Amino acid sequence: RTTMASIRQGPDDKLHGGLLVEGFDQESCHSRYKSATYRRNPGRQPSKHLISKLRRHEALQRRCGPGTAAYSAALDQLKSGKNAASSDCKYLVSISYRGLGNRILAAASAFLYALLTDRVLLVDPSNDMDALFCEPFPNTTWLHPPGLFPLWSFGLDTPERHGKMRESGALRPEPDAPAFAYVHLDYNQTDYDKLFFCDEDQRLLSGFQWLVMRTDSYIVPGTFLVETFREELARMFPERDAVFHHLGRYLFHPSNHVWGLVTRYHDAYLAGAARRVGIQVRVFPWEPDSPELLDRITRCTQEEGLLPRVVNTEEELPAATTTRRGVKSVAVVITSLKGWYYEQVKGMYWEHAAAGGEMVVVSQPSHEEYQHYGVKSHEYKAWAEIYLLSLTDALVTTGKSTFGYVAQGLAGIRPWVLLSGQANGTAGASSNLPCSRDVSMEPCFHVAPLYDCKRMGDSGKIVPHVRHCEDVPTGLKLV
Ligand code: GDP
């Protein structure tokens, strides 16, 4: 008999505990209602408050989004160059850039900010956002018309930049103010741009009908520092270490093409295994293959009990463990731009027996060698591989990588993070540990503000659940 509890928490809870709604056309997006059947870890339950907030936000997106009279009026206002005196419909345009992991984290951050400020989220359609993801909002679109806000036309010199207007004292959302304010949260932001995470700036920005935000970062931990937002955030996310987990599962459904890549690979290499382990080896094209990194991967997976140790070939395994029947298997999926690490790990489990007689099947979906910009087939593979990592039961990731952050958040698991030789986090090189378990599944906000808004101070000590990251010590993360 099916009980309410099993509907809500079983692995086949296709709506993720109420995060998603029924009613989308299933053919246009197979992954939306099917993904739950591929996840052994059902993940965290969203709060009732988050669910009702999402439903209200969907209604706002429909009422004010592209194609509505309100949207046409807002566009006219934007073209007039003057801010609207008042308006029921306000907009946040999100421009994300860099690799796919960065773009996903930036879009999730923009969405949370839109939820907090009751703004319609519109995302930049360049960067293949439409080809990679299904539409997250029912009966409307989150893509703004192409060319409305050209990606590269925003930067430090943009006159409407929030930090620039703040510095000159011109940040006043009065009728003679510009039609939009531009929020610049790029690596080269100024101290004035960082005031975005302060209450006074939020008050001033709330008067603009249009905001344009350009970032490549997961700015969410910064929004938890803003007093104005704290109560609402606490209600939406009583479990503060699961913010991206919920936002990611709500927003990012692989398009049908990507879903084909995910499911074919999953069924061929992962579905039959008793355990599934993902290893993300983020290397850069110019780096030579590193026996030292390979050693860390091997030690990490074996010392932490994720993969079996290997025994010397000379040692005889007891006959009972070499029979094929009933042998447990572990599937290891390695993602990397290079093929060398996969070749070595696979070779190791071929040339040596695994202790305990477990069968270790190692595979790697692709090795693209270098990062291609604007190439659809490359983006498809990257997204499919992030998603495949998120379907595993245990994850080993590379610190600082947004690619890995997205996988761990969607999976709902705390990864073991490979420590680089130069790592100067709390468990850095001196301890000679190959990896350390992350304190939470949340991504790290790499370019976080360095101070609270009233004085220079440590932004990792303002609220207890926002702390510095181990992999990027100046960054901030939710725990
Ligand atoms: P980050 O640079 O590690 O933070 O991750 P990003 O996803 O933002 O950027 C790296 C980009 O390089 C990815 O989006 C891919 O285009 C490519 N890339 C890096 N590692 C892999 C990998 O393991 N598999 C594939 N297919 N692409 C990768």
Automatic annotation (TrEMBL):
| Keywords annotated in UniProt | Cell wall biogenesis/degradation, Glycoprotein, Glycosyltransferase, Golgi apparatus, Membrane, Transferase, Transmembrane, Transmembrane helix
UniProt GO BP: cell wall organization
Q: Any keyword S-adenosyl-L-methionine?
A: no
Where it sits in the cell: the answer is:
Golgi apparatus, Golgi stack membrane
Q: Name one Pfam family in it.
A: XG_FTase
Superkingdom field: Eukaryota
Endpoints of the signal sequence: none
- E.C. number, please? 2.4.1.-
What are the annotated GO cellular component locations?
Answer: Golgi cisterna membrane
- Does the entry feature the keyword Glycoprotein, yes or no? yes
Please tell me which top-level EC class this enzyme sits in. transferase
Give a GO molecular function annotation for the protein.
glycosyltransferase activity
What is the membrane topology listed in the Swiss-Prot or TrEMBL record?
A: Single-pass type II membrane protein
Record family assignment: Belongs to the glycosyltransferase 37 family.
Function (record text): May be involved in cell wall biosynthesis.
Return the protein name. Fucosyltransferase
Q: Which organism is it from?
A: Urochloa decumbens
